[in-house]
Structures are given as structure tokens and as C-alpha cells.
Design a protein that fits this description.
alpha+beta; 4-stranded mixed sheet; 9 helices; 6 strands
């Protein structure tokens, strides 16, 4: 059995991050007789300057990328279809907002120490993209935390302090120094990197190839 170390640099606000992960999950399920993986999530902020109240998503995308309303609609349709293929539901409405995700990354770092990081990351994705919840609201965040079996009051204490803030910034700086400027980025065994919402076939091919290469390099 080959076990991979997979580090995923991502932002909860990034729809391709959940598509890419779900496709990686499908690939690992197909390869389960030969391969497994230890997965860790690392912080990246698509919009670090975003105020806590957030911004209407359609307005934000038009401003940031110069999209017309028609192009925005086409993008959402493509995203919904990609999600459907990956087994994830995207719901879009005109009330959606883009938020500052720094507090989410702080909670995810804490969740990693509790062995619940992937569970919380997926719950955040579902809350934001499927259930249309506003993750810039403390009580909403605490509900999601409790949903995956983490301590609500401990999470509240983190949110109301600066716990994990320095650790998140240090992690962001480290991956920036490694040249990572877009998400998702999947780093395998500290050596190989795949970017974007890759289909499961690409992950299967990459993992098999890496396994073969490392087997040749083994003494």
C-alpha cells in the first residue's frame, strides 16, 4: 500500500477548490486497494482585503475580472455542471456574497489539531456554496463547527481572540514563497504539484506516475 502526503492550498471561497478535492476523493476511492493519502489543508485568501461584511458576489466578480452579467451567468452554469460531475451541489442566487475568509482559516488550523480539518473544510464548502449560509456571521460559523463535532465555545474563544492568526499568516507566507499564487494547489509528497479543479482521471494518472517514479528512486 502506497501512502501519499497531500497538502492542499485552498480558500473556502474558491469553488474550484471543492471541485478539485471531490475529484481527488473519487480518485483515491478508485485507487484504494493500492494507495491512500494523508491530507492537510493550508490557507490561501483570494481576497485578503475584503471587509468583514463582504461584497455581493456578482458585483465582486464583475469588478475583479471585468465580467459582464452574461459572462457571470455562463461561469455559474459551468461551475454548477462541474460540481454536479464531482458530486457537489452549487446553488447560486443574487444574494450571494464574497467574504473575508481569514477567520475560517484560523478555525481550520485549530480543527487540524483536533483531527477534524477535512470534515470542517467540507462543511464550510457546503454551508457557503450549497446551503447559502453567510460565513462572516459568528453564530453561523459556530453552528458549522458544532455540526462536525468540534467544541462550540472553544471556537467562539478563537474567533473573539487572535489565536492562530500568526500561524495562518506564516503558512500563507510560506506557500507564497514557494510560488503558489492560485488555488487549489495540490502538493504531493512535498515534491509534485497539481493546480486547478482537475478531473479525477488526472489525479489517478498523476498518483500512479508518482508512485512509479518514487518506486524507481527507492534504494
Amino acid at each position: 500500500m502506497r501512502n501519499f502526503k497531500i497538502d492542499i492550498v485552498s480558500d473556502v471561497m474558491c469553488p474550484w477548490c471543492v471541485v478539485g478535492y471531490k475529484n481527488l476523493e473519487a480518485a483515491l476511492a478508485e485507487l484504494k486497494d493500492d494507495m491512500s493519502a494523508d491530507i492537510s489543508w493550508h490557507p490561501f485568501e483570494l481576497n485578503p482585503e475584503m471587509p468583514i461584511e463582504g461584497q455581493n458576489l456578482n458585483e465582486h466578480l464583475m469588478q475583479k475580472y471585468g465580467l459582464t452579467e452574461e459572462q457571470g451567468d455562463e461561469n455559474r452554469q459551468r461551475m454548477a455542471e462541474a460540481g454536479q460531475r464531482a458530486g457537489f451541489t452549487f446553488n447560486f442566487d443574487d444574494a450571494r456574497i464574497m467574504i473575508n475568509s481569514f477567520d475560517l482559516h484560523r478555525l481550520l488550523m485549530w480543527a487540524g489539531e483536533q483531527g477534524k480539518q477535512t470534515a470542517l473544510k467540507l462543511a464550510f464548502f457546503e454551508a457557503h456554496f450549497t446551503d447559502l449560509k453567510y460565513l462572516n456571521q459568528e453564530e453561523v460559523l459556530l453552528e458549522v463547527v458544532e455540526q462536525v463535532g468540534l467544541d462550540k465555545e472553544q471556537a467562539r474563544n478563537i474567533l473573539q481572540s487572535d489565536q492562530y492568526a500568526q500561524a495562518v499568516r506564516q503558512a500563507q507566507a510560506r506557500f507564497k514563497q514557494l510560488g503558489i499564487s492560485s488555488v487549489p494547489t495540490f502538493i504531493i509528497n512535498d515534491k509534485y504539484a497539481l493546480s486547478g479543479g482537475q478531473p479525477s482521471e488526472s489525479f489517478i494518472q498523476a498518483l500512479r506516475q508518482i508512485s512509479e517514479e518514487e518506486a524507481k528512486e527507492a534504494p
